[in-house]
Amino acid sequence: MSDTATGPGTAPAGEPAFRTATLADVPALVELVESAYRGEASKAGWTTEADLLDGQRTDAASVAEAVEDPDGVVLLVERDGELVACCQLERRPDCAYFGMFSVRPALQGGGIGRVVLAEAERVAREEWGVGLLEMKVVEQRGDLIAWYERRGFRRTGVYSPFPYGDERFGIPRRPDLRFELLTKELKGV
Q1: Are 180 and 156 in contact (CB under 8 A)?
Q2: b vs e for 129-144, b when ≥16 Cβ sit within 10 Å of the residue's Cβ?
Q3: Each residue of 54-80: pLDDT tens digit?
């Protein structure tokens, strides 16, 4: 990611500042992702998956792999020095994959998510020259899918199975979970 006006140390107090994650950030990233999706703490926000899944959402090894991926970037969002949000972008042959999108539960609904998504789109479009963003969302997360649709993503009707039996992705609370592929065309490429 290039050093832009939203780079470290350039945002006014209280404004979100972006930077690229390093291995030193892995523990804080794991905690942030877990807090946004799993357990009681996640219920303070609207992105919780606690009613669908128990167990972990991610682990240090998976996050470290994403941070070190030469074809990707993990963007951190800090406000007044505190980690408040993150996302992962992975460069693929004809698109960029958007994932690990997390916002602290108490801050959800306040606009940070829109800022993070806009920066991810900018990086994919301007720095990587990519015209398509892809992501997978648990199909049963209708409210979350609707949020993405309001931001220009479209449902594809392309599904992939949830990895039942692999507790690295959580312990399902129901037998019908699956992912749907969402895509968004990025203008200006």
Answers
A1: yes
A2: ebbbbbbbbbbbbeeb
A3: 999 999 999 999 999 999 999 999 999
